[in-house]
Amino acid sequence: ELKVEQNPLFLSMQEGKNYTIYCNYSTTSDRLYWYRQDPGKSLESLFVLLSNGAVKQEGRLMASLDTKARLSTLHITAAVHDLSATYFCAVSNFGNEKLTFGTGTRLTIIP
Amino acid sequence: DVKVTQSSRYLVKRTGEKVFLECVQDMDHENMFWYRQDPGLGLRLIYFSYDVKMKEKGDIPEGYSVSREKKERFSLILESASTNQTSMYLCATIVGLAGRFRETQYFGPGTRLLVL
């Protein structure tokens, strides 16, 4: 059974600082996703990572994937307030479209 | 842009009622999904469908059923609502096999269901 663990669950950081959210998964997968969710809203896709060593960047967010370690990271550079949200990673099961989600990381950026 | 709509944003029902949640997508996607989201548990897959009249159980199907009579519409049914089904329900959709490796799941706005 595929399990996905995210840490930390809660993260409070000051504006301008850097931090990393970690996503570990238990079995081989062919895709890893990062999503953002604002309070009371639905999920918005950030990144799809397909292969070992994949790195994607959008603004102050950068995601990477190490399939051998079964680890993905979401790195936040010089955080700003509007990055405050809950971030989820999700991992696909090989051969089908099922996703298993992590429990989410609630990120709060303090001015 | 992909558009995924859900029939209600908020719903209040009584224990034992039959509840229908509807999801409609306008992108001709083959695959559709129902999740529930609870604090501390992330999103958990209830049911999904690869095509019209096809359905597969997800991780927590007990107490739920689904219907997919048309490609664009995927309904979640709570046969007899219980208080432990109070949750946020999210529908999602993704293209079929041909585009799957470049695509992500697109989510609807969610339905917050309260069962009293």
Please sum up the structure shown.
The complex is a heterodimer of chains A (111) and B (116). Chain A is mainly β and 111 residues long.
Description:
- The complex is a heterodimer of chains A (111) and B (116).
- Chain A is mainly beta and 111 residues long.
- Chain A has strands at residues 4-7, 10-14, 19-25, 32-37, 43-49, 55-58, 61-66, 71-76, 85-92, 99-101, 105-110.
- In chain A, the strands form 2 sheets. In chain A, strands 2, 4, 5, 9, 10 and 11 form a 6-stranded mixed beta sheet that branches. A 5-stranded antiparallel beta sheet of chain A has the order 1-3-8-7-6, with no helix packed on it.
- In chain A, strand 9 (85-92) and strand 10 form a beta hairpin.
- Chain A is globular, with a radius of gyration of 13 Å.
- The termini of chain A are far apart.
- With 116 residues, chain B is mainly beta.
- Chain B has no helices and 11 strands.
- In chain B, strands 2, 4, 5, 6, 9, 10 and 11 form a 7-stranded mixed beta sheet that branches. In chain B, strands 1-3-8-7 form a 4-stranded antiparallel beta sheet, with no helix packed on it.
- Chain B is globular, with a radius of gyration of 14 Å.
- The mean pLDDT of chain B is 91.
- At the A-B interface, strand 5 and strand 10 of A face strand 4, strand 5, strand 9 and strand 10 of B.
Query: What is the helix fraction of residues of chain B, given as a range?
Result: under 10%
Rounded to the nearest angstrom, the radius of gyration of chain B is 14 Å
Distance between the termini of chain A: 41 Å
- How much β-strand is present in the residues of chain A? over 45%
Mind describing the biggest β-sheet of chain B?
A: 7 strands, mixed
Q: For the residues shown, what is the average pLDDT of chain B?
A: 91
Terminal CA distance of chain B reads 37 Å
* DSSP, total strands of chain A: 11
Give the class of chain A from helix and strand content and strand pairing.
Answer: mainly beta
Structural class of chain B: mainly beta
Rg calculated over all Cα atoms of chain A: 13 Å
The amount of helix of chain A comes to under 10%
Instruction: Work out the strand percent of chain B.
Output: over 45%
User: Low-confidence spans of chain B: pLDDT under 50, at least 5 residues?
Assistant: none
What is the oligomer described by this structure? heterodimer
Instruction: Specify the number of helices of chain A.
Output: 0
Overall morphology of chain B: globular
User: Largest interface, by Cβ-Cβ below 8 angstroms: which chains and how many residues each?
Assistant: A-B, 23 and 27 residues
Based on CA inertia axes, which overall geometry of chain A fits?
globular
